[in-house]
Amino acid sequence: xxxxxxxxxxxxxxxxxxxxxxxxxxxxxxxxxxxxxxxxxxxxxxxxxxxxxxxxxxxxxxxxxxxxxxxxxxxxxxxxxxxxxxxxxxxxxxxxxxxxxxxxxxxxxxxxxxxxxxxxxxxxxxxxxxxxxxxxxxxxxxxxxxxxxxxxxxxxxxxxxxxxxxxxxxxxxxxxxxxxxxxxxxxxxxxxxxxxxxxxxxxxxxxxxxxxxxxxxxxxxxxxxxxxxxxxxxxxxxxxxxxxxxxxxxxxxxxxxxxxxxxxxxxxxxxxxxxxxxxxxxxxxxxxxxxxxxxxxxxxxxxxxxxxxxxxxxxxxxxxxxxxxxxxxxxxxxxxxxxxxxxxxxxxxxxxxxxxxxxxxxxxxxxxxxxxxxxxxxxxxxxxxxxxxxxxxxxxxxxxxxxxxxxxxxxxxxxxxxx
Length: 419
Description:
419 residues; alpha/beta; 6-stranded mixed sheet; disordered C terminus
């Protein structure tokens, strides 16, 4: 059960901009119960949202929810309150913080009907792993800044659907990309372009039961291409980046082997030369060390040898040809309004939608707490507790919608939800 929810412009830390707070309702009611696997959408509210602005979405959960859906690696600080409903508080009391985000699955920013939407679906490179926390330094964030800064301001929104640990063909830290493509890409209102960064985690798995062939990875990519084209979308493929020296997180085990590297190179050759994608974004060429192409160049290495630092993410964004995203229908976006969407998911799922989210997660006592979060709220499996959550949304995760006049926040609760 969502007991209360509010949306506002985010200020600093666990505070909101005075005068910007809006109470969210659901068919006029302040609370709503979400069945497992379901989606609920709040009523629209009027709220002017600036480009690259941050939103705070606050959610109060008055009852124990059981396992909560979450995005476990949001790269944004979420603020957790003590018990109580603080959804309308300009400054939230904070009992703890986390980089995870709970329940909220996304924030939609409405724009003119001519605005295009780029959806980026992928693994940890798209999720922004190892980028600076609270800096919005993912390549999707930096792509959004480039789109805003270009002469003539092509009206395009960027939606980050990255999920660290995700795979193309097998479930891992969330459903595989083939399984979540409809929900996380095709179902997004106004989507016009898709960027795919997927397959590395399939190739470099340490689970022998889930070993894949080059042909299987290519077949998975072809499925995504076909499904995007069936909806009239343009879809672009990213080459897979080097991983030599990277250890499986929490273990001393390297994922790299020469045999798996051969597979990565073969998949990259297909992405570059097959012509099946509508365009190619060569992340491998950007990050690889010219003298040792199985490794990330030191200048861009975050230190884990598998993910770039902020400079590397900026290089990835700068390597993307903005001409890929031509949107000849219009240049100007209209004013935005806000609404929130909440959903309940029956399995660990990650959605990376609303950036800059503050989450106030509750403990296991009666009385409820609230969570205030910053960027990117996804779906997954998280803590139990009585809570409310405040999330904020930043430029990369805000979606510009066609024929809509709301900003939409989505919150998700997990299977086993009661109340």
